[in-house]
Design goal:
alpha+beta, Elongation Factor Tu (Ef-tu), domain 3, 2 domains, six-stranded mixed beta sheet
């Protein structure tokens, strides 16, 4: 709730990171990812996926173009070795260098409606110039930091990549962390853990690799077609995804809001008219909405918004309904996306949402 009401800070240094450089870095990344890397201007970023030949998601990621021949990729912690190995395996036909940068950069996420004003107190550059999914360089506590404006919480916020800070020598990173804690105290800043991060991202309808995405799931099934750019040329998994686009998907990712009391959990079955139609991949009790929420893959014919379904919780069928994602995401200081609808709701005025 600190992130929803004011600001929170997360240590996400465990994430995987790679630097991709060279004259053919853009062409290489366009081949191994599904989004269109050629559309990026320097200091801009994009959400994307890497797929296998069958179109299954090897990982989802964020990619930033730092310079014309230099890119910075951030991917999931559990996939650090797998992703780096995949990039190295695909690199030889291209004039490109791939470097594992994971243990040379500390990474903090500062998220919430007061994230900008908090960080501006310690940043040497004007953070208002950094727009959504763009980045820039600044200094914090005398240390070079690449600041990107993305997030995994449904709120405005930034990721701080504390450059040249190896795990073996964390002093500069600790200075940055501690000065943010100090200046954020007045705004109600709280250090937050991965449990909070998980409920926040689920309220925002965002996927977690290993739960909602894996190598047997395609971006089209996951409702991520907006990051698959078929027109850009060849890329790994393209033919399989084109075939699926033409034939349609058997199942799709949806949101489920519990109508009756109950907390859906991963692997719980979704039922309709006495039969199984899907399975929960992420589920929790929402601290904001004060009810159980879930994401699930269900048969394509049962994805209509408002459709009644049931979730099997401890051998009991509990009523829920299909809802449009996200459950919640702030789009401005005065408006949020709530169950897929844009609603006027100033920060902290949750009564307007009926919660």
């Amino acid at each position: 709730m600190a992130v929803r009401n004011s600001v929170g800070i997360f240590d996400v240094t465990h994430m995987g990171r790679a630097l991709i450089t060279g004259p053919e870095a853009e062409a290489f990344l366009n081949y191994v990812t599904t989004n269109n890397v050629a559309s990026l201007e320097p200091l801009n970023g994009q959400y994307s996926t890497m797929c296998n030949e069958g179109g299954g998601v090897k990982d989802d990621l964020v990619l930033f173009k730092l310079e014309s021949e230099k890119f910075f990729m951030v991917y999931n912690a559990a996939n650090r070795e797998k992703d780096y190995g995949w990039l190295v395996q695909q690199a030889p036909p291209f004039n490109v260098q791939v470097e594992d940068f994971s243990d040379r950069v500390a990474m903090f996420a500062v998220q919430g409606p007061k994230a900008e004003e908090t960080l501006q107190r310690v940043s040497e550059e004007d953070l208002r110039e950094i727009k959504r999914f763009s980045g820039g360089w600044t200094k914090i506590a005398g240390t070079d930091v690449f600041v990107s404006r993305t997030g995994y919480t449904g709120e405005d916020g930034f990721e701080l990549n504390v450059w040249d800070t190896p795990v073996s020598d964390p002093e500069r990173a600790m200075k940055v962390w501690n000065i943010i804690l100090e200046v954020g105290r007045e705004a109600g800043l709280e250090p937050c853990g991965l449990g909070a991060r998980d409920t926040l991202r689920l309220e925002a309808g965002l996927c977690l690799y290993g739960n909602d995405l894996d190598e047997d799931t395609t971006p089209l099934e996951a409702q991520l077609s907006f990051i698959v750019k078929f027109e850009k040329g060849d890329f790994i998994g393209k033919e399989a995804l084109l075939k699926q686009k033409s034939e349609g998907t058997a199942e799709k990712r949806v949101g489920i809001r519990m109508v009756e009391r109950g907390i859906p959990r991963p692997h719980y079955e979704v039922w309709k008219r006495g039969g199984k139609v899907g399975v929960v991949t992420s589920g929790t009790f929402s601290p904001l909405l004060k009810r159980g929420i879930a994401m699930a893959y269900v048969s394509a014919e049962h994805t209509t918004e408002g459709e009644a379904v049931e979730v099997k919780i401890r051998d009991k069928l509990v009523k829920g309904e299909i809802v449009k994602l996200p459950f919640y995401r702030r789009v401005s200081q005065d408006q949020v996306l709530f169950m897929g609808q844009r609603v006027t709701c100033p920060v902290g005025d949750w009564k307007r949402l009926g919660v």
